[in-house]
Design goal:
Blueprint: H1 6-17, H2 23-31, H3 35-48, E1 90-91, H4 92-115, H5 119-135, E2 143-147, H6 150-154, E3 169-172, H7 179-195, H8 201-220, H9 225-228, H10 233-236, H11 243-257, H12 260-268, H13 289-302, H14 306-309, H15 313-330, E4 340-341, E5 347-348, H16 355-375, E6 379-380, E7 386-387, H17 389-404, H18 428-431, H19 444-452, H20 483-486, H21 490-504, E8 532-544, E9 547-558, E10 564-572, E11 578-579, E12 582-584, E13 587-589, E14 596-597, E15 602-609, E16 615-623
Antiparallel strand pairs: 1-2, 2-3, 4-5, 6-7, 8-9, 9-15, 10-13, 10-14, 10-16, 11-15, 12-13
């Protein structure tokens, strides 16, 4: 695997062994990148994404005020917030996730950001988001989840300052629930309250009040948000459901308040909401399970292992098992659940904006590594052995280095960093002459005819934007209409700013400011038997045109005393047709006529191929 050289791993190990005095310059030199510069630019990007009336401190000078009537038609002030990517829609789910991850970045690495002179800019970026989220939550059980719609917006190529597209606002309420969006917004408010707890306690209390109300709303009125805000479905559909967001919100509320009822919720709903059943190897705006699992594992590590975890020791250990599996999967030591990599070493999940999963994984690995190191532990891998914190951090560094230019194309996928970076970013505001340079109105279709199809660099440099990045073979085309690769998003940068702060600090790592003591943890482990059993058998074989084909039957059995719901199955090395399961966003699912597996019951699916048996494993499930 060419993902990261042994030299890079060795350098990371040396860096961890050095005294703390070897600081930023040494750390940056070790990786060959100026992490402090990249950190500064990663935060600056958010100013290019601002909607609303821009402040006097605005540094991205080619942007101007926009969306000043947002919410007016609905009788509510929804001015402000962030555009998610290269369009002019304010999508609530990715915006809230962005705020959560910016906040977690500051919680873990705020001291390092302060040392780099960027903490003020980071907290300003968070507050720009939370100020909007507060406005979007005018009543306990009402949350506005979107302004504008992707269909009308994508029909036009306009600067946000010129927008003539629909600015309709869409809301959630008890008759139109949306637990993913309400839960994620609750998580964002809770995490941000920790950021402002010391510097602005009154504001922190306000955020916490909103967070508690939103969590109760999300939990009491359960439902998929994209069934209520249907215009979001084509752009930010919820494929993982809302169980992960409910757990995610509870975990953050526990961190922010220390209230045992939120930890009780996290533990008591671990089975029913999938917290200990999902073994997914990607983390992002849709699926939060790895983030929940890492937060729960951190709770266990801070509580001296089993002894301090009390009645929840067993379930927190099961959360930690899944957090360990995520970490090991990123390193290629997670068995069949291991993450694919490109020939150049980037973790790879999909063609469209793959970088979002690279930055989120790098942040989770860095933060988890610091907490494991503080507890004197590592991540236990399913095939045996332990992944040391230094290995996790070295791999996180390798992914950041890839983004910054240490890749086969020697291209930085952060705009404005390095010698070679994307010039035709898929971004309306950046690709049309600035309204400040030429205030003449650019119409919906004139934007396409005069600006979108130009084969020249954008007139405005969107510094710090981290684009979608290359394909599975490390190929990349810097073309404005290649939106899968050249569009940047806020949720690409939010976790990246945290890991960049960690790397800029060198040995002066993290450990977070969750309000609990970091304590050395017990290294005991209590593996639980997996409740889902998978058995494969070759039931027939035949020869055709010199090839031997085999029919494999896969039996999936529920060994739990509870009922299995929403079972997701991973299959790799599958070269033939499969019957008895349906393809889904995260692997395969049982047919609709088998919605669940009762205790002791089995389901069977079959496939045929002229090859050894495929790898089959459980990706996720809920036990009720």
């Amino acid at each position: 695997m060419a993902g990261y050289s042994m030299a890079a791993v060795a350098l990371a190990g040396i860096a961890l062994a050095l005294a703390a005095a070897t600081t930023t310059q040494v750390a940056s030199a070790a990786g060959g990148h100026d992490y402090r510069e990249a950190l500064s630019k990663s935060i600056l990007y958010f100013e290019a994404q601002r909607s609303g009336r821009l402040p006097g401190s605005q540094r991205v000078a080619w942007r101007a005020d926009s969306g000043l009537l947002d919410g007016k038609a609905n009788g509510v002030d929804l001015v402000g917030g962030y555009y998610d990517a290269g369009d002019n829609v304010k999508f609530g789910l990715p915006m809230a996730f962005t705020v959560t991850m910016m906040s977690w970045s500051v919680i873990e690495y705020g001291d390092q950001m302060a040392a780099a002179g960027e903490l003020g800019h980071a907290t300003d970026a968070i507050k720009w988001g939370t100020d909007y989220l507060v406005k979007a939550h005018p009543e306990p059980n009402v949350l506005y989840g979107e302004v504008g719609d992707g269909d009308s917006d994508h029909d036009c190529w306009m600067r946000p300052e010129d927008m003539t597209t629909s600015r309709q606002a869409y809301r959630l309420d008890p008759q139109n629930p949306g637990s993913e969006l309400a839960g994620e917004t609750a998580a964002a408010m809770a995490a941000a309250s920790l950021v402002f707890r010391s510097s602005n306690p009154g504001y922190a209390n306000t955020l916490l009040q909103h967070s508690k109300q939103l969590f109760d709303f999300a939990d009491k009125y359960r439902g998929r948000y994209d069934s209520s805000i249907t215009v979001a479905r084509q752009y930010y559909a919820s494929s993982s459901g809302y169980g992960d967001e409910l757990l995610w919100a509870a975990a953050w509320l526990h961190e922010a308040t220390g209230d045992a009822r939120y930890l009780d919720y996290l533990a008591n709903n671990a089975d029913a909401l999938g917290g200990t059943g999902w073994s997914i190897n990607q983390f992002g705006w849709d699926v939060k399970y790895p983030g929940v699992q890492v937060l729960a594992a951190m709770t266990l590590l801070r509580r001296r292992g089993d002894a301090g975890a009390g009645a929840h020791a067993d379930v927190l250990q099961r959360y930690k098992q899944q957090a360990d599996l995520f970490a090991c999967s990123c390193l290629g030591r997670g068995g069949p659940n291991s993450v694919r990599r490109t020939p150049g070493g980037m973790v790879y999940h999909q063609n469209w904006n793959n970088v979002q999963f690279v930055t989120s994984a790098a942040f989770l690995l860095a933060a988890y590594a610091d907490h494991l190191a503080a507890a004197g532990q590592g991540a236990r891998c399913p095939a045996g052995g332990t992944a040391q914190p230094s290995e996790l951090l070295a791999f996180a560094r390798s992914q950041v280095d890839y983004i910054l230019g240490s890749n086969p194309r020697a291209t930085s996928y952060m705009v404005g960093y390095g010698a070679t970076y994307p010039r035709q970013v898929h971004h309306r505001g950046a690709s049309i002459v600035s309204v400040r340079a030429n205030p003449s109105f650019v119409s919906c279709q004139a934007g396409y005819s005069s600006w979108y199809h130009r084969r020249a660099a954008n007139p405005n440099l969107i510094v710090g934007a981290t684009v979608g990045g290359p394909d599975e073979y490390d190929n990349f085309a810097d073309e404005r209409d290649n939106y899968e690769q050249t569009e940047a998003t806020t949720y690409n940068n939010a976790p990246l700013m945290g890991v960049l702060a960690r790397l800029a600090a060198g040995h002066g790592g993290g450990g977070g400011k969750f309000g609990h003591h970091s304590l050395a943890a017990d290294d005991s482990e209590h593996p639980s038997a997996w409740p889902i059993e998978i058995e494969q058998n070759a039931t027939a074989s035949w020869t055709k045109q010199g090839k031997t084909y085999r029919r494999y039957a896969v039996t999936v059995t529920n060994r739990s005393p509870k009922t299995v719901h929403e079972l997701h199955i991973g299959i790799s090395k599958l070269y033939g047709q499969v019957w008895g399961v349906d393809k889904a966003r995260y692997g395969y699912v049982l047919p609709s006529w088998i919605p669940s597996l009762l205790a002791g019951k089995s389901a069977v699916f079959v496939y045929v191929q002229a090859a050894p048996p495929a790898d089959v494993w459980v990706t996720g499930y809920k036990l009720i």
